[in-house]
Design brief:
homodimer, alpha/beta, Arc Repressor Mutant, subunit A, Rossmann fold, 2 domains, three-stranded antiparallel β-sheet, 10 strands, 41% helix, elongated
């Protein structure tokens, strides 16, 4: 992701931009038209100069004399973060976490299109969750080949994580978003993003 | 969190230490006694000098001529990351995500003790999930007062996030781990950690 001068945007800025985006969606749902950098800063407890600096990275901030136009600013963040480029994903593991992610409509706002879920539990196969079909895991290889899948979201129990990762890699999928606490062993051309919930927790509770 | 010289450990190092910890648990379950920095580095695709540098921050690394002793290294990481200091938590929202977190036994390995869940769905109240009782949300105030709760993990649908946060704050809980996509408005003495799954996703798919 790049800013208006085609310089890369740091992870911390990306993270803050998605939080600004959440605030903007909330303001839109409440019918509020304008927002100031101070209002954003107050909600996130950060410095308003930081907010202004971040928003200056965008192509066009929709800034007026009464603050930023909420709708314009939201669109500009979406363009900068590349939401318009849709990624096609599947969820491997239709347990509670997989179900929660399948239900999370917010993903589509960010260009993540979850097409279906995979599981080995015959009681779940054929059911739908949030309009997404749960498919038998043995069909993953064929499905991925036919449906041009970019990302597999891995949400199986830890003991099945590596074998499912092997299946995903064999299916030709090049990105794994790994929600299991297992460090996966995959071939060099596959990228794994470890969603390290425990690492996040430990950072949060650092002074607790 | 501090290293052996009582200097603070950065978020990135904390994150890597938890990944090393996952690898060590895997090695222990496989009955392997020793591990080298190269083996860890290879699994995580980072430089082995980085692994050695991180492990040098620990008090006692259990390093021998044949690499690190897996069990000793695991204990040392746990001591450094303060897992021994248990935090008492509740989950607010017994939907799929709340259920997934309640089932995630790994938390207790990291000093997070989830005592119970809260919901407003009468069909769920009184049931248990992973030995944790689901309690009517109207009892949260009294429960928190009587049970010395450190952390509320917020997993309700977006439209209930702010009102539940208000209830949590009124109950005297000072830390909210927020899994909803809502930026919460809370009093100054309460800390909110936004588990920004979309921000993480966008960082991951930066070059996709």
């Amino acid at each position: 992701m790049y800013n208006k001068n085609m310089k890369p945007i740091s992870d911390k800025v990306i993270n803050r931009l998605t939080l600004y985006h959440s605030i903007l969606r909330d303001y839109i749902s409440k019918g509020i038209e304008n927002i100031s950098s101070k209002q954003i800063a107050l909600l996130l407890r950060i410095d308003d100069s930081q907010v202004r600096k971040d928003l200056n990275l965008l192509n066009n901030t929709g800034k007026t004399r009464v603050g930023y136009n909420v709708k314009e600013l939201k669109i500009n963040i979406e363009q900068t973060l590349g939401f318009s480029k849709t990624k096609r994903a599947i969820i491997v593991g239709a347990g509670n976490l997989g179900m929660a992610l399948a239900k999370y409509d917010n993903f589509s706002n960010y260009g993540l299109n979850i097409l279906s879920l995979f599981d080995n539990d015959s009681k779940k196969i054929g059911k739908t969750i949030n309009n997404k079909l749960i498919i038998e895991i043995t069909n993953l290889y064929e499905y991925a080949k036919n449906n041009d899948i970019d990302i597999a979201i891995l949400t199986v129990p830890a003991e099945f994580a590596q074998s499912c990762a092997d299946t995903i890699v064999n299916s030709g999928i090049k990105y794994i978003w790994n929600f299991t606490p297992v460090v996966l062993n995959v071939s060099d051309d596959v990228q794994v993003w470890n969603e390290n919930i425990m690492g996040n927790f430990l950072q949060f509770t650092i002074d607790l």
